[in-house]
Amino acid sequence: MNPRIHPDTVLITGASSGIGAMYARRLAAQGHDLILVARQQNKLDALATDLQQHHAVRVEVMPADLTLPDDRSRIEQRLRGDDAINMLINNAGMSVSGGNAQADPDTVEAMIALNVTAPTRLVRAMLPRLLSQARGTIVNVSSVLALAPERFGGSYAATKSYLLSFSQALQREVAGHGVRIQVVLPGVVRTDIWERAGSSLDRFPADMVMEVDELVDAALAGLNQGELVTIPSLPDLGEWDAINEARRALLPKLSLRHAAERYRSDISEDA
């Protein structure tokens, strides 16, 4: 067991398959008890049985559709009141095919509820307790599309950009209080999210597609290394640091008394 990860109970959303299920496998192997959240109870039950057969951990399943307020409220209450849960992995997410002019608005609303509203509310339910205990970990699974929204049509990239900004804001709030924040930005990963969105991995070159076990192993390594932002595919972390430094350099110039010269119309002498 890696000594840098405490064997606390971990609640994982979107845990029935893909990235969430792999997080469950890796963390169970490290000795963590788990609470698995997803819509499909049969998949959760099968995963829980497998994990408990192979590891000396307790695994509880909580079937829930996090786009539904009542279901979401049950998970919030558990996070708020269970002192054993000291790690939250906000992994549940969905994509919508088609651009903003074509996508079904109700499906887009459901995506925002799952990708944005749910992680925000789950963090809010848990964060006061973690701050009072001065320990705990929150992991938000975003996407590299947070950095490249022009590469994907529709609103999906915007929801993932939110998770990046949200995590950066969280980090400032918890700094010095013993709580760790990480946001993970996967690229293309071999999961079933593509088929569920009506797309296919076949449209990507093979060297762009990461296997889910390698993605999760990299994410956990980044967490152990204390990274706020983990981009598993990025060879040189200095490139991200350079972007972030350039962004910070803009801060003193983003709110000034007067508009920039290029926006100020010339005023004629007789005006």
TrEMBL record:
User: Which InterPro entries would you find in this protein's record?
Assistant: NAD(P)-bd_dom_sf (IPR036291), Sc_DH/Rdtase_CS (IPR020904), SDR_fam (IPR002347)
Q: Does the keyword ATP-binding apply?
A: no
What's a single GO CC term here? membrane
Single Gene Ontology MF annotation: oxidoreductase activity
The record, for Pfam families, names: adh_short
SUPFAM superfamilies referenced in this protein's UniProt entry, alphabetically: NAD(P)-binding Rossmann-fold domains (SSF51735)
Q: Which organism is it from?
A: Dyella soli
The entry assigns this protein to a family as follows: Belongs to the short-chain dehydrogenases/reductases (SDR) family.
Protein name, UniProt field: SDR family oxidoreductase
The UniProt keywords, alphabetically, are: Oxidoreductase
- Taxonomic lineage from the root: Bacteria, Pseudomonadati, Pseudomonadota, Gammaproteobacteria, Lysobacterales
Q: Does this UniProt record's set of keywords contain Cell cycle?
A: no
